[in-house]
Specification:
The protein is mostly helical. The chain has eight helices and four strands. Among the domains are: 134 residues, Cytochrome c-like domain (Cytochrome Bc1 Complex, Chain D, domain 2, Orthogonal Bundle); 35 residues. The protein is 43% helix and 5% strand. Helix 2 packs across helix 7 and helix 6 packs antiparallel against helix 7.
Length: 252
């Protein structure tokens, strides 16, 4: 077989597999997020509700290693609320005067307590699967907020021609469609103090909004600074143009 024939056969093979691969990756449903766009900002009510979903549902398996309790001031929790939230966990501290480690209640400066002591403990509790840290999950996954939302609401009954092994669950938006994480959200899993109905879709949107904030808590300040810089550059450009006209007026 000539080199040209080999290359043609390889190209045909690649082209033949592309449609099948594309078919396995359904298009993510586009959601409207308050934090999108140049002037986007986090919906504080949704972010607070999302923290409730994380704390009551996700925190059983997933950590937020890059976040401290005091950072919750960024989503309008007050100092008393943050102290109360931190005090619900016990953390190891020390050594004390006797050189021993001891347990104490959490304080606002503590990082969010991880659900497992280490990766091996996490895998042992989850049939070998390792629940990822969620601090940057929105930025770490292609599709960002839309992908995480789709994943949370994408659990379905597997098609008749698909066999799902024990301990796995069919998800329409996960690569390969088989996910070790059981459906985390169930209707009414949390009770929102503001009276919002805790549907699966609502809880998914709220926790995604919270996780978008944990991934980029400085986003609003960055956008405000960006607008100020653009306005400054616009004014500066006008002043420089006027100066140029004044300097070159005599020449013309």
């Amino acid at each position: 077989m000539t080199r040209k024939a080999v290359l043609s056969a390889l190209a045909a093979l690649v082209l033949a597999t592309l449609p099948a691969a594309a078919a396995e990756a359904p298009k993510l449903p586009k959601q409207a997020w308050s934090f999108e766009g140049v002037f986007g900002a986090f919906d504080r009510a949704s972010t607070r509700r999302g923290f409730m979903v994380y704390k009551q549902v996700c925190a059983a398996c997933h950590s937020l290693n890059l976040l401290a309790y005091r950072h919750l001031m960024g989503v309008d929790f007050n100092e008393a609320e943050i102290k109360s939230i931190a005090a619900t966990v016990e953390v190891q501290d020390g050594p004390n005067d006797a050189g021993e480690m001891f347990m104490r209640k959490g304080i606002p400066s503590d990082k969010f307590k991880a659900p497992f002591a280490n990766e091996k403990a996490a895998r042992a509790a989850n049939n070998g699967a390792y629940p990822p840290d969620l601090s940057l999950i929105i930025k770490a996954r292609k599709g960002g907020a839309d992908y995480v939302h789709a994943l949370l609401v994408g659990y379905k009954d597997a098609p008749a021609n698909v066999k799902v092994p024990d301990g796995m669950y069919y998800n329409a938006y996960f690569a390969g469609n088989q996910l070790a994480m059981a459906p985390p959200l169930n209707e009414g899993a949390v009770e929102y103090p503001d009276g919002t109905k805790a549907t699966v879709d609502q809880m998914a949107k709220d926790v995604v909004t919270f996780l978008a904030w944990t991934a980029e808590p400085e986003m609003e300040e960055r956008k405000r600074m960006g607008v100020k810089v653009l306005l400054f550059l616009l004014v500066l450009t006008g002043m420089l143009y006027a100066l140029k006209r004044m300097i070159w007026a005599a020449v013309h």
